[in-house]
Each structure stands twice: as structure tokens, then as C-alpha cells.
Amino acid sequence: MDGIINIYKEPGFTSHDVVAKLRGILHQKKIGHTGTLDPLASGVLPVCCGKATKACGLLTDKDKSYHAVCRLGVETDTQDMSGSIIRKCDISGITEEDIINCIKHFEGVIMQVPPMYSALKVKGKKLYELAREGITVEREPRQVTIHSINVTDIDIKNSQFSMDVTCSKGTYIRTLCHDIGIMLKNAAAMEKLVRTRVSVFKIEDAHTLAEVQDIAVHNPEKLKEYFLPVDALFTGYKKAQIKNGSEKALANGNKLSGSMLKGLTEEPAAGEDILVYNRDGGFKAIYKRDGEEYKVNKMF
Questions:
Q1: In sequence order, what are the residues at sequence separation of 6 or more whose Cβ sits closer than 8 angstroms to the Cβ of residue 129?
Q2: Three-state secondary-structure class, residue 135
Q3: How far is Cα 228 from Cα 167, in angstroms, rounded to an integer?
Q4: To the nearest 5 percent, what fractions of the chain are helix, strand and coil?
Q5: How far apart are CA 75 and CA 133, in angstroms?
């Protein structure tokens, strides 16, 4: 299989678990996921197979959307409710208006300190490995973007609220919950997280591992319908097809001139990426306009 399948990762599975199980279901070794989703979390996990694994890094960079439930009055060592509680606070003074006003301060470009319980590496060692040894190290704040953040429900009686967040890569929703607690001069931890979208992949179109397994066994021909071709990721890009006699240059990733391409309805701007297809209409590469020529950006 060559393409990207939208998997619904269930709570309790790691992203690595999903890849391992898919290797067994599809009998295919070349598989990679597109960004770690915590074991506690569920939702959209695009998985790249075959030649599409070259797109893993491109999908990691895409914006993502989440639905999160935040528990007020509690601080944990992991910043979510899977960790050990290290502090409790009285939330009786917090109002719905306080929460709504507080959350809006996090919209836009913000700085986040990555949590200790994360897969980031310091001197070759993952932070969560150090955390499990009781070691805490300094982490540099990183710039992330919260494109939108909206409260969907507030339940003060049960010390929680829900929010929908669309954000850039590298954003930790656990840390967002933690920082909201600090701004409220209280404490907070993430109780539940569902990733609802990664780029063009939406939760309503996601398939469980059990569903993929069933189709692979009972109707394997239908399985290909579950896969999205790589070029479907690049909505809005201009497209061109290689002309006869120039196929070898495209296959080798050589520079291309405009005279070697056909199908462009509008001339790309300087530095603009375009999708390039072979004579049979197969997607082969992303090329970038470079002066009067096009140079390869990514081969597929």
C-alpha cells in the first residue's frame, strides 16, 4: 500500500503501538506515523505507508485541532490526570467569566516550556526518561501558535471545563491546561484529549484498528479505499505534468524548465511550490520556482 490512512487512535495505545499493529495487519514494513499522540489521548493519527512515508515530516508540520477537558484545582507531575497529584487548590473563587477571559490570553503566538514528561531529547536522552529517574532539567521556552481557542462547556461544580483548540506543531495541550491554571492563580491539569483534525484528516473519517483488521481479512480489495494519495495533502497547490522527453529529468530530480512542463494555468510566483506529475498522471514530486527554472523540493 502506498498512501496515508487516517487511524482513530484509541486511549491506551501509543502511536508506536498503532504502527506496529498496522504492520501486522497490512503485512508491510514501511510504515510511519505523523506525530506522537499521548497514550491517554485519542483521535486522528495519520499513518503513512510505502512511498508515502516520505510525507511523514510534512504532516508533522501541519496545524492540528483538539478537544480537551481540563480539570481545575489540581496540579500533577505530568500535567495530565495520568500523573501523580502534587498540589490541590480550592476553586470556589473561580467563575465562568474568569475562565473565558483567561483562555483568550492564550490565543496567538505564545511561549511554552515543554513538559518533563515528553519525548523531547536533552543530550541524547528523552525528557520522560529523566523524569522517571526523578531528574528535572531546564527547558528552553518554545514559540508556538494557538490559532483559535474556544470554551465549549464549563462545569464549575465538577471542577472542569472543555475547550476546542487549533494550534501549530509543537504545542502541548497538557502544558496549555497547566498554564491556564497558573494564570487563574490556581492549578489545572488535562483530563481528556481528543485530536479532531490533522491537516485534511478529520476525526469523522478516521478508522479504528479493528475496522482496518476486519476489512483486511474479509474484503482486502476495499482496503485501498481507506488510503489517501500523498498529493491530497497539498490542497491549493498549482499542478504541472512532465512533457514527453523530459521524464528522465523528473525521475532523477533534476532542475526543470518551464518548457518541460505542461498544464500550468497560471505562472507560479518566485519560491512557490508546485506539484509535478509524470506522463501517466502519477504524482512524483514537489518542485519550487527558482528564477526561470524549478528545483526539486521533495521527491515521492
A1: none
A2: coil
A3: 23
A4: 30, 35, 35
A5: 20
For residues 134 and 145, what is the distance between their CA atoms, to the nearest angstrom? 30
SS3 179: helix
Residue 136: all three cell numbers together: 528535572
* Cα–Cα dist 201/185, whole Å: 37
- Cα torsion at 203, 208, 214, 217 (round to 10°)? 100
Q: What is the pLDDT of residues 138-147, one digit of tens each?
A: 889 999 999 9
Query: Is the pLDDT score of 2 beyond 90?
Result: no
Give the per-residue pLDDT at 135: 86
- pLDDT score of 117 more than 90: no
Q: What is the mean pLDDT of residues 58-74?
A: 91
Residues contacting residue 7 through CB under 8 Å, at least 6 positions apart: 18, 22, 44, 45, 46, 47, 206, 207, 208, 209, 212
Query: Are 242 and 276 in contact, with CB atoms under 8 Å apart?
Result: yes
CB-CB contact of 113 with 144 (8 Å): no
Give the pLDDT mean for 179-193: 97
- Helical segments of 65-148, H only: 96-104, 127-132
CA 207, CA 216: separation in Å to the nearest integer?
A: 12
Q: Round to whole Å and give the CA distance between 26 and 163.
A: 36
Task: List, by residue number, the catalytic residues.
Answer: 38
Q: For residues 254 and 247, what is the distance between their CA atoms, to the nearest angstrom?
A: 10
Distance in angstroms (rounded) separating the CA atoms of residues 262 and 272: 17
**Mean pLDDT, residues 210-232 taken together:** 93
Beta carbons of 83 and 116 less than 8 angstroms apart: no
Cα 36 to the chain's mean position, in Å?
8
Q: Residue 221 corresponds to which amino acid? A: E
Average pLDDT, stretch 21-32? 93
At 8, list the grid cell.
482513530
